[in-house]
Amino acid sequence: MKDIDAKTQAELEAAAFRRLVEHLRERADVQNIDLMNLAGFCRNCLSNWLKEAADERGVALSKDESRTHVYGMPYEEWKDRHQREAKPSQIENFEKSKPGH
């Protein structure tokens, strides 16, 4: 990507982010704890990173708004519809590999 100008690079990265968010919305069967255990990030992390980027640029975006953007609905609604109780093995794996963010 070294030969791509900064504007095009930002547009490509934004498109990839939108695709990732779309994919995660379609895969509500994949639990956040599984994402955390396998990849070290989850939907909540993405929404936090989105909010941090907005904060850095002085753009008003609440935590609830950033979560709604990533989840495609209010977070509490997503949890009610899709979140299952974590299994003891999932919790154990999370505690072993818990990221620092």
Automatic annotation (TrEMBL):
Region spans: Disordered: 79-101
Domain SMc04008-like: 30-96
Pfam families membership: DUF1244
InterPro entries: SMc04008-like_domain, SMc04008-like_sf
Domain of life per record: Bacteria
Name listed for the protein in its UniProt record: DUF1244 domain-containing protein
Species per Swiss-Prot/TrEMBL record: Microvirga tunisiensis
Lineage: Bacteria, Pseudomonadati, Pseudomonadota, Alphaproteobacteria, Hyphomicrobiales
